[in-house]
UniProtKB/TrEMBL annotation:
It comes from Gossypium laxum. One of its GO terms (molecular function) is RNA binding. Signal peptide: none annotated. Coiled coil: none annotated. This is PORR domain-containing protein. Residues 48-377 form the PORR domain. InterPro entries: PORR_domain, PORR_fam.
Length: 415
C-alpha cells in the first residue's frame, strides 16, 4: 500500500489479522511516541498447522536414511560391522533392526564378510554401494557448483554473531541444516583465508572460526534484499519489514493485535547491524532478535531448524533467555512444530501449503539422494510383487494338484 505524501511502501501483510490497521503517526510526526503493552502480559495460544507439520513428516524417512548413511561414512574406511551399527539404533532413532532397514532401503549399502580382529570369525560388514558412491560424487559436484553460496552462508553466520567468531564444534553440528559440506573446515576455510581464520586447538573442543574480512555485499538480510528489489521494480521506496500473515482460522486477541501493530511500526533492525548499544530487554532488541531468527531460517536448507539447534547460539547471537516464546508470539512470521516430539521453528513465508516456494540450490543434493532411495524402493516393490505372484501361482498349482488327487481318490473308491 502506498502512503500518501511520502515515497514509502510497507511489505507487511495483514490479510489474516482481523481489523488490524497501522497507525503511521510515528513516521509522520517524530514527537509521537508509541505506547507498548508489556510483552510479558501478552500470550498467544499455540495452534497446530497441519500443512507445515506435513512438510516435516514428508522428510521423515529421508532424514532417517541420511542419518544411517552419515554414520557409516564417518567410520574409518567407510565400513562398519553390522552388529556395531545395530547397537547404535537408539541414537540413530532407528526403530527396526539394521538388517530390516537395509532390506527396506536397498541400494544404500552392500554387505560383505570380514574379521573384526585378525583371528576372529567372519561377520557381516556394511559399506556404501556403488549407487551410493555415485551419489557422493554427484554431491561433490553440486557443492563445487555452489561454492560461492556456501562461502556467503558461512560468512553470514559469523557476521551476525556478537564477536564475529563461533565455536567450530557448533558449526560442525549444524552443517547439514545450512548446507555446509562435510569437509568445509579442511578444504573451504583454508581456500578462503581472506574471510576465515581457525583459532584455538582443533580436536580439543576449543577451536573457533573467526571472520577476517567483512563483506558489505553479504551484510544484507533476505528482508532488506527483498525491499531493494521491490523498490527497483516499483520506483517506490520500500521499507524493510516482515511479511506477517496468520494462517486461515487463526486470530489474535485485541490487545495482541495492537501490540503486533505497534511492534511492526518499529524500524527494522538488520541482523548484521551492531547492536552492542541496545538494552537486551528493549523492544528494539526484540525486533532485532526476530530479524536474526528470520535470517537463520532463511539461510537454512529447508527454511526450518530444530529449536534446540537455534538455542545453541543464544550467546553468539544475543538471544534473550525467553527466545523460544518468539516463535508463538510472532506466529504470523514463524510456526513452531511439535512433530516427532521435537520443537522445530518454521519460516511461514517460505512455504505454500507443505511445499517450499523457493528452493535452495543445495537442495539438489537432497533431490539426488531421494532419487537414489526411490529407485531402491521401486526395486523392492517389484521384487515383492514378483514374489507374491510366484506364491499365488504355486498355491494355484498346489490347489489344482490337490483337486486331481481328490478326483483320483473318488474314482478309486467307486471301483
Amino acid at each position: 500500500m502506498i502512503i500518501p505524501g511520502i515515497l514509502f511502501k510497507s511489505q507487511t501483510s495483514f490479510s489474516s489479522i482481523s481489523n488490524l490497521k497501522l497507525n503511521f503517526k510515528s513516521f509522520l510526526n517524530p514527537k509521537f511516541t508509541l505506547q507498548f503493552n508489556p510483552i510479558s502480559s501478552l500470550k498467544v495460544v499455540w495452534r497446530k498447522d497441519w500443512t507445515l507439520d506435513e512438510a516435516i513428516e514428508n522428510d521423515k524417512r529421508y532424514k532417517l536414511c541420511a542419518r544411517v548413511v552419515k554414520e557409516v561414512l564417518n567410520e574409518p574406511g567407510q565400513a562398519i560391522p553390522l552388529r556395531f551399527l545395530d547397537k547404535r539404533r537408539e541414537r540413530l532413532r532407528l526403530n527396526v533392526r539394521v538388517k530390516t532397514f537395509i532390506n527396506n532401503n536397498p541400494g544404500l549399502f552392500e554387505t560383505y564378510y570380514d574379521r573384526i580382529r585378525p583371528k576372529s570369525d567372519l561377520v557381516p560388514f556394511l559399506r556404501p554401494s556403488k549407487r551410493l558412491r555415485n551419489f557422493l560424487e554427484e554431491e561433490k559436484r553440486i557443492y563445487d557448483e555452489n561454492e560461492e553460496l556456501v562461502v556467503s552462508k558461512l560468512c553470514k553466520l559469523l557476521m551476525m554473531s556478537r564477536y564475529k567468531v563461533i565455536s567450530v564444534d557448533k558449526l560442525v553440528y549444524v552443517k547439514r541444516e545450512f548446507g555446509l559440506p562435510n569437509d568445509f573446515l579442511v578444504n573451504l576455510v583454508p581456500k578462503y583465508s581472506n574471510y576465515f581464520r581457525l583459532t584455538g586447538s582443533p580436536g580439543e573442543g576449543q577451536s573457533f572460526l573467526e571472520l577476517v574480512e567483512w563483506n558489505p555485499e553479504f551484510a544484507k538480510s533476505v528482508i532488506e534484499q527483498r525491499a531493494e528489489e521491490e523498490s527497483q521494480l516499483t520506483g517506490i521506496r520500500v521499507r524493510p519489514n516482515f511479511n506477517y500473515k496468520l494462517p486461515p482460522g487463526f486470530s489474535l486477541r485485541k490487545e495482541m493485535r495492537e501490540w503486533v501493530r505497534d511492534w511492526l511500526e518499529l524500524d527494522y533492525i538488520s541482523p548484521y547491524e551492531d547492536v552492542s548499544h541496545l538494552d537486551q530487554a528493549s523492544r528494539e532488541m526484540e525486533k532485532r532478535m526476530v530479524a536474526v531468527l528470520h535470517e537463520l531460517l532463511s539461510l537454512s536448507l529447508l527454511k526450518r531448524v530444530p529449536v534446540p539447534i537455534l538455542g545453541m547460539f543464544t550467546n553468539d547471537y544475543r538471544f534473550s533467555n525467553a527466545f523460544l516464546s518468539a516463535f508463538t508470539r510472532h506466529s504470523g512470521i514463524f510456526y513452531m512444530s511439535l512433530k516427532g516430539g521435537i520443537k522445530t521453528a518454521v519460516l511461514r513465508e517460505a512455504y505454500k501449503g507443505d511445499e517450499l516456494i523457493d528452493k535452495d540450490p543445495l537442495l539438489g543434493i537432497k533431490d539426488k539422494f531421494v532419487e537414489l532411495l526411490e529407485e531402491g524402493w521401486r526395486e523392492r516393490a517389484e521384487m515383492l510383487r514378483v514374489r507374491r505372484e510366484q506364491v499365488k501361482k504355486d498355491m494355484e498349482m498346489m490347489a489344482a494338484k490337490n483337486g486331481e488327487l481328490s478326483e483320483q481318490s473318488c474314482e478309486e473308491a467307486e471301483l
